Amino acid sequence: MSLERITIDPAICHGKPCVRGLRYPVEMILELLSAGMSVDEILSDYEDLEREDILAVLAYAARLSQTKRVQPFAA
User: Fold this and answer.
1) Which domain holds residue 44?
2) Rounded to 5°, angle at Cα 19 from 17 and 25
3) Hey, which residues does 25 pair with through a beta bridge?
4) Does residue 73 fall inside a structural domain?
5) Four-CA torsion 52, 58, 64, 69, nearest 10 degrees
6) Which of 58, 60, 61, 68 has its CA 20 to 30 A from that of 18?
């Protein structure tokens, strides 16, 4: 799984991290997964995505979560 699949281009999705320069923001894929969609369901719905893209999204999210300090959300 390569983080090279995650690209940031100011001309695509307002510079949000996306999959391979396509208009699939990392956050959208994460939202689909957190809503309960399986990898196979996502791949079926978005035919230009590849399994390695989903794994790269998860690796990217894991890398972002490696912070020194986390503030709790206000209730």
Assistant:
1) 3-64
2) 50
3) 18
4) no
5) -160
6) 68
* CATH number of domain containing 54: 1.10.10.10
Q: Is 46 a domain residue?
A: yes
Cα 27 to chain centroid, rounded: 5
User: Which CA distances in Å does 21 have to 3, 6, 8, 65?
Assistant: 12, 8, 7, 22
d(CA 70, CA 49): 32
Q: Is residue 72 part of a domain?
A: no
Query: How many structural domains compose the chain?
Result: 1
Give residues with Cβ within 8 angstroms of 9, minimum separation 6. 15, 18, 21
- Ramachandran area for residue 36 (φ above 0: left; ψ -120 to 50: alpha; else beta): left
